[in-house]
Amino acid sequence: MSEELEARWDKAIEHARYMLKEYLNIPTGVFGATYISIVIQRYESGERTEELLKELEEIK
Question: Where do the domains of the chain lie?
Answer without folding.
Answer: 3-58
